[in-house]
Amino acid sequence: MEYTLIEVYRKINNEILLAKECEKNGSLIDAMMLYDSISKGFQVAIDKESSTAQKKILALKVKEYRDLCKLFFEKSVSRENHYYINETRNVILNADSLKEKDPQKSLALYIKALDTLDFLILEGKDISQIQIAKKIMKETLSSAEIVKKNIKNIQQQTRDLIPKVSEMNISGPLNKKNVLMKSVPEDNFSNKTQKITKKLSDSEYLVALNTSYVNGVACVPWEDKDSNCYSTESNSYKDDRGKLLLSETQRKSFGSWKRLSKFYKDNFKFKVLKGDNITQDTVTDCSFVASLIVCIEHEIHHNTKLISNLLYPQNSNKEPIFNPSGKYIARLFINGFWRRVDIDDYVPVSQKGKLMCTYSTDDAFIIPLIEKAYLKVMGGYAFPGSNSSVDLHTQVDKEKTWKRIFEGFKKGELLITIATGEIGRNQRESLGLVPLHAYAVLDIVEIMSYRLVKVKNPWSQFSWKGKFSSLDSNVWNTKLSKALSYDPNSAGSRDNGIFWIDYDSIVEYFDGIHLNWNPELFEHKSINYFNWDAPNRITIDQNNISNNPQFRLRMNKGTVSGRVWLLLSKHVMTTETNSDYISLHMYKNEGDFELKRKGDVGTSLGVDETLRNESLSEYLILESGNAFRTGEYINSPHILMQMDLEEGSDISDYMLVVSQRDRDKSLYFSLSVYSTVEFEISSLQGYKYNEIVKSKWDNRLSGGNSLSPDYLNNPQFSLVFPSDTSMGETRFSGHIILETLFDYPVQIRVFRGGYLVTVASSINTVAQSGKYRHKLCSLKLDKLIESNYTILVSTYEPLLFGHFSLTVSMNSPFKLNQLPREGSGMRHKVMSGKWIVGVNSMGNKNNVNYHLNPKYSIKTSYPTYIFARLYVVGLDSNFPSLNLSVFESQKNNSLGTLVATSGPYSNIPQGAVIQKTLLKNGGSEYVIIPSSWEPDFEGEYTIHFYSDYQVEIEQL
């Protein structure tokens, strides 16, 4: 609901009165929440007020009531909980500020806050903390719902813009996925005209749809009909968004917006473009202009069309032509698709009547219009700058790099720009270089033992002053000048920004060499589009990558050597500061995979050492670690990973995992594969059936690892699959993930049965997660046949308390329920004792003096079910084999009929167990005997005895 300014002030006054009343009544939490609302109300008033003086007064009020809110918060909440509440409130404030600007990120932050509040309510130890968390949660839920509704409205507006079909004819580097690639995308590097038509999947269609707005500008996927935009109506078209945001430098000398057709008058004809003529003016888009220049030079030297065919309308020779209406459509490759960007021909002109944008000195009209189309998408002429391309290397081999770029450039397979980094003032003067600036590479030569590069500064001035510059008289002689058609004297007298520089100086003084290779170097190509939704809960551990986008890449095995390039591109939605640090990791799929992470704790039972994670095979990777290739995390929209394939290599199967640090919003990507050998790439989807349960280790359910006698007193869950025999034999596959906020080493173990596990052994173990790992562990279940299983989750040390989250994902429906702890609902008695050599340590039943072992009488009044466990106290290894048995009691104190037993003697740490057994004879007396297999064992023991009805137990 939108309030008027008067209504805002009325609401604030009412809340101030209520807050004072709450103070008097001692309702500190209510007062705190009201002061918070009051401060927000004053902030709303600031936005609505027109008076600058009044805004300043209101700003002081905002601070005053925020301070009051903080004061009452500190009075209401215990000090140890301040951190969590404050952090949550900061997240919510951040979400509030992004409601309009970035609703997707705002919603993600609200969800993150709600998850934290949920945790605080569950963990709350005092009523005030829980009350505050609940009140904040109520407000946050309301805000989140509003943002969610706004997002749906925006998505609907985008859907209205794009044809509502899941099949679009899209030209460009697209190929059908999941098959071996032989077709080629459109090749702008050559004169071939090839178009590939691809039917997008539903999910890929949504990627195209949801990335069709960049900075609020519509750039829908290109269709052939878009080229027909010619109109004879003079100056009839005016773009509502055509007057782009000007840079600060432009605004200082800006005169007016003028139609380019009026500016050029009768000279509005297509001209062959020349890189030498391109001049960057007051726009800080040197990276774009440098890229423009190298593309134009490629057109000249290799007879290609990289730039000149991007603007419409065109004539029969596919050359841009004058449109009387003033409307032009640029065809740009944006966010993984060729897209249309509509522009008018208005350009900024200075007060002196000069163009204030990039232009060609020969008045080629295409240059200002292509720049305008690009900058319209990028947010305007106030462009912050960027890299002209990204080709990331952590280490560079100087000689190999030269050979690579020299050969590639000469063959016309490579476009190059170079860029400077930070340069001190003194070096700027002595070297002639502009800091943080991109330059275009026009030519590369090897001549007279020199390795030289011809470079152009997009500003068309400020040339290099170092070695091989026009000032370097030591190197320029007649022979060299003639060979390069370069006159240093003429160049020195007329600085046009074009210069020669040696390769060694580039390596020394420039920060980066940006390479853009011809994709036609690779015979086989593929592109996959996908989205990565914002997390719907807090990511407890960054090592959990089960929900990361993942792909399986399979190559022809080792028949020939080859090269594969993987290009991960994040689709850009806004040109704000990029805080999305993304990466691409590669794992080998070798069929025998054991995850290892720093800090893993040894498994507790020797037999479990052999239980490893299943092969990666067709399955998702659940945890990070053991990557074959670990990518760098950078905030560039492009990540390039290169891999050489060795002839005869046995490894032909890889897993690709997209990763991001501190993920808090939905992102869209393209993953392009370029390969010299055939390949197949498949997107790995998560399992269809998923369930998350939250539980905790507490003082009753925290038994430690499998060496602990209390190991089975850990949380256990039944995993039950439907037993539909009509479908024949069904095999169940999936994975289980255990996460906790606490830095505990944890483990998952799966047993057969589906009921409470009372005996842990390798025989009834189906799978386990390996060594105990801090905060996060996982396991995979592959082709299970039985229908009932039990999941046990444990910490390495006993008595570690805290909440955890258990996620089960399967290929078939299932039911997941936490099982009651051992003896739950039964009466419980504990007997402790000691075997003493020569007194009562008489060994197993085959020994004559077995009856001299410790004995306890059990007297019952009614028939009752019993359950009992015996274990040794104080041992970490070399556990004795134990047995626990119940006999009917005879009048002469001899042992009668055996009624219940734990079975064969067993030496597991959890001891011996008598399963639930009915003592039928109410009013009878029984004898229970704990014993070890070997006589003369000395040690302490404990018996936990459970019964439905009250029984009397007495040591004999």
From TrEMBL:
The active site is at C286, H437, N457. InterPro entries: Calpain_III, Calpain_III_sf, PalB/RIM13, Papain-like_cys_pep_sf, Peptidase_C2_calpain_cat. One of its GO terms (molecular function) is calcium-dependent cysteine-type endopeptidase activity. Residues 256-519 form the Calpain catalytic domain. It comes from Furculomyces boomerangus. Gene3D superfamilies: 2.60.120.380, Cysteine proteinases. One of its GO terms (biological process) is proteolysis. SUPFAM superfamilies: Calpain large subunit, middle domain (domain III), Cysteine proteinases. The keyword Protease applies. This is Calpain catalytic domain-containing protein. Belongs to the peptidase C2 family. PalB/RIM13 subfamily. The keyword Metal-binding does not apply.
